[in-house]
Amino acid sequence: TKPPGRRLHKDYQLWTPLTLADFEAINRCNRPLPKNFNFAADVLDQWSQKEKTGERPANPALWWVNGKGDEVKWSFRELGSLSRKAANMLTKPCGLQRGDRVAVILPRIPEWWLVNVACIRTGIIFMPGTIQLTAKDILYRLRASKAKCIVASEEVAPAVESIVLECPDLKTKLLVSPQSRNGWLSFQELFQFASEEHSCVETGSQEPMTIYFTSGTTGFPKMAQHSQSSLGIGFTLCGRYWLDLKSSDIIWNMSDTGWVKAAIGSVFSSWLCGACVFVHRMAQFDTDTFLDTLTTYPITTLCSPPTVYRMLVQKDLKRYKFKSLRHCLTGGEPLNPEVLEQWRAQTGLELYEGYGQTEVGMICANQKGQEIKPGSMGKGMLPYDVQIIDENGNVLPPGKEGEIALRLKPTRPFCFFSKYVDNPQKTAATIRGDFYVTGDRGVMDSDGYFWFVGRADDVIISSGYRIGPFEVESALIEHPAVVESAVVSSPDQIRGEVVKAFVVLAAPFKSYNPEKLTLELQDHVKKSTAPYKYPRKVEFVQELPKTITGKIKRNVLRDQEWRGR
Ligand code: ATP
Ligand code: MG
Questions:
Q1: The complex's ipTM?
Q2: CA of 350 to the centre of ligand 1 (A)
Q3: Is residue 353 lining ligand 1, measured as CB closer than 6 Å?
Q4: Which H or E run contains 186?
Q5: To bridge 374 with a disulfide, which of 70, 318, 337, 413 should be the other Cys (CB 3.0-4.6 Å)?
Q6: 84-107 tens-digit pLDDT
């Protein structure tokens, strides 16, 4: 007979649940992917069991605070029963079925985690989006995905209402708010009456689980569809060796709920390892709140985008005593070596950079225990075979710049996205010979470390030289006047295009003579890197255009430079 909470893994002919070691072996491709996999049943409910037997420390699974004194702490058992209620709510009053698509546009509130898990329990495909989306963005997402339902918060309800008539497939609107609103079902109300009895659907490992929209740094966001196992098992190694998580750890991953980084750091990697996911509601990033949180709560592991570290090192960090912090991570954008060194000098902690994409998850990382080379993204992460290739798909030797690519042959790694939904051309365009191409350029050194050069479209070609913006930006930020910068190509009569830097100045330098400062910065870059890379044009700006994820939008500045040509 079937023991409660356990399922037969047909591939193994066992009634025992898979363990973390099994997931690691599967992630390494040392063990076949099971035919069926469901993150809620096979991972979360197993941790709930371990909680009961004392095999897991009495650490919450989710620890949420809002800075105003409200706090939510759920064990895996509570997460289990609450998410079962949410699952019943989605299938019953909301009328959703396995395979239906739901847009989930919520801020960092506990319900986001409930809806994620509830969708997994029911086989409903969830599509997270940030509450910073405008009506136009939401319209694009709802129409492109033919979503049947939207789960939203008050912040976005008016925007949704303004476009809802243009979305014929949308049947249900579910509002997460203490107030009710005309035309919306109320999450809070339905939740109250929903039953805790729910049996998790037995999803296939390759069955779709979620659609993540890319950041849209270079155009319309693409809908990358992931399977139950690509995110659900494919982030085991990332959790264990990059995030370095154990079940006693508490990870604060700051990314917004709308991006795949939230899936990595705040759901899959962390819970695979049984760690506690810490969340601060923080509507807007604020350095003081941030530093306060790290000094108040026993957070062991921190993951934030580089832009946060760039802001933090402007502060006198030596004044703060972080309670339990031991492991810091960053990713999403290149981290300037200068920032890494300042962070290390001020906090005594290393900064472990990772490089990944919505489509394929983590590609390279500085894993715990490996020597960090400042400025490098670390080594390729298993199970991927990461290479630098040329335009014909040939592997280039160490030291040669080319496109960062992942080997696809003989078998496409299971942790890959399944496809860009309804976009076979774009999906096909990611393949070159035996490889998946990332669209990013880089170099691998003879020790196997990868060095980011730039997005393929951001690389500047001036007088026949190829110049990666990141190296120039990293040189500029070494100068005390520079908080951050964006380097792009700009038209030039003689050279065709030249390097131009948009620079945000540190407060004490804002009153300096701009011509003199320009010369000084140019001089500095010439000394710090190969002189041909120095910015021939410099413009001082108050801020840089960024995506909602905090990534610099170099294409906006570049288009501005070339407009009218
Ligand atoms: P779109 O594909 O819609 O233009 P996007 O590529 O920014 O948007 P994401 O999947 O969120 O969408 O981001 C992945 C990209 O972010 C990578 O391809 C790379 O360009 C950049 N990136 C991520 N991590 C790093 C890193 N550590 N160093 C340099 N670049 C990084
Ligand atoms: Mg991309």
A1: 0.98
A2: 22
A3: yes
A4: strand 185-186
A5: 337
A6: 999 999 999 999 999 999 999 999
